[in-house]
Each structure stands twice: as structure tokens, then as C-alpha cells.
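Quick question, first post here. What does this chain look like in 3D?
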Amino acid sequence: MKKFLLLLVFLVTTTTVFSQTVYITKTGEKYHKETCAHLRKSSISITIEEALERGYGACKVCKPGTISSKTSLTEGSENTTTETQSKSSASVQCSGKTKKGARCKRMTTNGNGRCYQH
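> Answer (accepted):
Ran it through. C-alpha cells below.
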């Protein structure tokens, strides 16, 4: 009985996961979450499968879920280790805030996106 319930829960979650709604624009090449800053007012809602079939790629800013080759949904995670390694070695601006409320100007290679002070 426990195995049956576990299988039922798994089937329900995989069905809802694969019908995730993402948003595209008429001229763009990426699909987005509803709250993405790069999404324009004239957005079209479609499922993630339709977006992939049409050749759209995932937005790197809002990181909507993507379907990997194993047909599992990964929410904003990097699929290969080389992408993760190259991302961690690149310098980015610190995401911390100063006392005045401005963004920190230091560059960092730290994985959490903050410099040594933040």
C-alpha cells in the first residue's frame, strides 16, 4: 500500500512538473518566469515543452525550470560541471549592499556572489 501511494504521488508531481507554464515574447529567443525583468508586457504563456519544441532557450536571469536529457525538471540549476566550473571562476560584481544602500563595487569569484567583506 505504501509503494502504491508513493507511486501515485510521484506520478502526480511529474505530471504537474512537465506542464509548467513559461512565458515568451513575439520576437525573443528565450522563455521566462512570469516575474522576470526581461519579460515584456506583451508576453505569451505556453508550456515548457512547447517552448523547447519551438527552439526557445531558458533565460539566464530568471532561470526558469529546464528539462534535462533525463527528462527531469531542474529549477535553475546548471546541468554540466563545466558550466558550473566556468561560472565559479569568472569574476562578478559583489551582490552585497553598502551602508548607504548602494551596491558594492568589488569584484568576486566567490560562489555565493559576495566579496570578502559581505
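The radius of gyration is 18 Å.
The chain is about 25% helix and 15% strand.
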